[in-house]
Design goal:
Elements: E1 2-3, E2 9-10, H1 16-19, H2 46-63, H3 67-87, E3 92-98, H4 99-102, E4 113-120
Antiparallel strand pairs: 1-2, 3-4
């Protein structure tokens, strides 16, 4: 088993972890946070609230996956299942989406996390 530069063991097949570095420190110390220069607003005025609501709605509409995107994602899952069944005949596979794709919090550009479950085999 290889070791990361700072001594933690890693899997011999996982090479990216051995050469990667943290981009962000996890320990930011015990220094107190700075006080804001201005007191934050307690509430928005009606025009600001209307603009913010409109901006959020526009962002929501832009990020919402299209019907075509949903269709492509499901076609990919179906195709993956067919490939697995063809390559390993006599086995039954189910492909499950999880994460943002599974709970429908994804965008059209989101990745698709999948779990492949082999239900029975002839081996």
């Amino acid at each position: 088993m290889t070791k990361l530069p700072y001594g933690r063991p890693t899997c011999k097949y996982e090479t990216s972890a051995a050469f990667s570095r943290r981009r962000m420190k996890y320990d930011i110390g015990d220094a107190p946070l700075e006080c804001p220069k201005e007191e934050p607003k307690k509430a928005l005025d009606p025009d600001e609230e209307k603009k913010l609501s409109g901006d959020m709605r526009e962002l929501y509409d832009r990020l919402l996956p299209s019907a075509e995107s949903d269709k492509r994602r499901l076609q990919f899952v179906d195709k993956l299942g067919k490939i697995l069944r063809k390559e390993w005949p006599g086995n039954e596979f189910h492909v499950h989406l999880f994460g943002s794709s599974g709970n429908m919090l994804c965008t059209s550009e989101s990745d698709g996390e999948m779990l492949v479950e082999m239900l029975k085999g002839s081996s």
